[in-house]
Amino acid sequence: MLDPGDNSELPPIPGKRYFTISEVSELCLVKPHVLRYWEQEFPKLRSVKRRGNRRYYQHHDVQLIREIRNLLYIEGFTISGARNRLMHEAEPVREGRAEALALLTEGLEEIRRLLTLDPGPP
What we know:
Blueprint: E1 18-20, H1 21-28, H2 32-41, E2 48-50, E3 54-58, H3 59-74, H4 79-116
Antiparallel strand pairs: 1-3, 2-3
């Protein structure tokens, strides 16, 4: 494995649906026991457990692990600092989505009003 501080040469994430813990370990350059520990510390990181309690990660989990790795190993955050950073990054996205949905709803209501208006005789 490479030095944990080396984040420049992470391998590309293959287009698979599920990854084993050993595959994620290689993709993110983090040992499996660290991944299991991070699952306890970061609520957003949850593997799917199947067949004999084996962990399987999805593509978004691998991206999250890489982000956690970057926060801890490159930017120097503590576990709690990285957890707080990830929680606060997600909040503006929710607010932005709410605003976008409100605008979309407004636009659709305007279209409905225009379509229901009686155009009059031709």
